[in-house]
Amino acid sequence: MTDTRSGYTQAARARKEIGVSGAQLAALAEAKVRWAAAPEDKDAAIWYARRLGYVGRYRDAIDVLSEARRGERKIGTTS
Predict the structure, then answer these.
(1) Closest among 25, 44, 4 to 64, alpha carbons compared
(2) CA–CA separation, 13 vs 29, rounded Å?
(3) Contact of 74 with 56, CB cutoff 8 Å
(4) Measuring CA to CA, how many Å separate 50 from each of 1, 13, 53, 55, 71?
(5) How many CB atoms lie under 10 A from the CB of residue 75?
(6) Which of 19, 18, 20, 49 is nearest to 32 (CA)?
(7) Buried-most residue among 4, 10, 56, 75 (CB within 10 A)?
(8) At what angle do helices 42-54 and 22-37 cross, to 10 degrees?
(9) CA atoms of 23 and 44, how far apart (whole Å)
(10) 22-58, pLDDT tens digit by residue?
């Protein structure tokens, strides 16, 4: 839904309030793609988890690291 006074969508306003930039979201999306393409790559899992943490998604970051450590892969459940 667009706020006609400011032109921001509610999601954009929420990102701004918590300090998440579009660049951070783009980096998060890229990290997710890299880990999805190579689930055995521990570096990819670490960077994905770091990017999740940077945007405040700490529980998801812990889940990604736990899955990577166990060799599990639930990439579709952590967006």
Answers:
(1) 44
(2) 19
(3) no
(4) 30, 23, 5, 9, 18
(5) 17
(6) 49
(7) 75
(8) 160
(9) 18
(10) 899 999 999 999 999 998 899 999 999 999 999 999 9
The pair phi, psi for residue 2, each rounded to 5°, is: -95, 135
Structure tokens at 46: 């670490």
State the pLDDT at residue 79.
47
3-state secondary structure of 40: coil
- Locate 59 and state its tokens: 């529980």
pLDDT surpasses 50 at 75:
yes
For 1-16, how does the pLDDT look when each residue is reduced to its tens digit (9 = 90+)?
444 555 556 666 666 6
**What letter represents residue 35's amino acid?**
W
